[in-house]
Amino acid sequence: MCDQDHFEKDKQDHEALGLVITRRQFGVMLGAGVAMMPVKVTESEVSVMTPDGTADCYFVHPASGTAPGVLVWPDIFGLRPSFRTMGKRLAESGYSVLVVNPFYRVKKAPTAAKGAATPIPELLPLAQALTETTQMTDAKAFIGWLDKQQSVAKNRKVGTQGYCMGGPIALRTAAAVPDRVGAVASFHGGGLVTDMPNSPHLQAAKTKAQLLIAIAANDDMRSPNEKNVLKETFAKANLPAEIEVYAGAAHGWCPPDSGVYNEPQAEKAWSRLLVLYGKALAGAKS
User: Fold this and answer.
1) Can you tell me the distance from the alpha carbon of 164 to that of 11, in angstroms, rounded to the nearest whole number?
2) From residue 253, how far is each of 33, 41, 215 by CA, in Å?
3) Distance, CA of 169 to CA of 267 (rounded, Å)
4) Cα(1)–Cα(15) distance, rounded to whole angstroms?
5) CA nearest 251: which of 259, 263, 239, 242?
6) What integer best gives the mean pLDDT of the chain?
7) For residue 55, is it left (φ>0), alpha (ψ between -120 and 50) or beta?
8) pLDDT score at 13
């Protein structure tokens, strides 16, 4: 666990040994099982072939050895420097990370003229063009690409995480490649629960993945029953799921370039992500 009580106890234990450790460093060590210092990484811009064309993506991984693969779905503002930074940070924690441009069918990144300050109405057509079919075919293509990389551990499950519109896509990724995805994380995801039979939460419930669902406080105010539906659905499916409303966090609080970035709550979400991956991606991919 990496909640406040456990963090403080472990922090005191480390300080008793003459060590100084931050929440971020502790999360890295606990979740990834690596040294306190970040591992050296190799990063590159890559092209991934899909049934619909070529997707421009960012790939970053430990400079030596192999590591579990992770597929990252950005928010509606797309692939940009902040998500490259987040991908690199995750790689420094011991993962081979592919951050994708979900809008590659229309244009290469950057796809938001003013980054996270771009008016959302300008971007809605891009997001609305991503259907269930395109999300599933892209998920298969991206994870298939990851599995071909030498830096990706072949005997480990892969993880996937999504932000905003990427949340439901991450859930659908698990449904698209259920034999490979062992962990799914959604941060201020929108549209996780619908009244349709193909709702992302229902599709994810048919997998064997472990889940982390981090909900913004204002999203919970708008849809107060959604967290209960998620809890009940995943409990009925016997899926380990951590579902939490982040107090004081507004929709979009995780990316550091967001206008509502909330560093304390973003760091808490990040530490929980590392705990999820540390548990779910540690074993074989059977």
Assistant:
1) 32
2) 27, 26, 10
3) 23
4) 19
5) 259
6) 89
7) beta
8) 39
